[in-house]
Amino acid sequence: MNYFNDMVTISRMRALALSHEASMYEQASRHEEAKDVLYPDYPFIYRWSNNEKRKDLYGRKLRVLVRSKSNSALVEFEDGQTEVISRNALRKAK
Question: In a 10 Å sphere around its CB, with 0-12 CB exposed, 13-18 middle and 19+ buried, how is residue 62 labelled?
Fold first, then answer.
């Protein structure tokens, strides 16, 4: 009985994670039409460089498409690349 309850809990957590991910992409697609009005330029710079992926992103201008409760954000860089990053890595562009 305990094993069954654990499996149900795990499947609920997976479903919740999938629905959260889907909702982030849905919000991003809603912003796709209005992003030029809401975010006319790229007001932030990515400021972390402590591993290979982050070194590639370091110093690039970006704009935030969706902010998450878990302190992450779906962002778009100037070249159109989108990434989910920590909001702690964002700094205002000068």
Answer: buried
Domain that holds residue 23: 2-92
**Residue length, the chain?**
94
Express each pLDDT in 30-43 by its tens digit: 655 555 455 458 89
User: Half-sphere exposure of residue 20, counting CA atoms within 13 Å on the CB side?
Assistant: 13
The answer to whether 65 and 55 are in contact (CB under 8 A) is no
Location of structure tokens 């970006």: 62
CATH number at residue 49: 2.30.30
Neighbours of 11 (CB within 10 A): 10
Q: What is the DSSP letter of 43?
A: -
If one compares 17 and 42, the residue with the highest pLDDT of the two is 42
In DSSP terms, 63 is beta-bridged to 76
- Model pTM score: 0.56
Instruction: Judge contact between 66 and 60, C-beta under 8 A.
Output: no
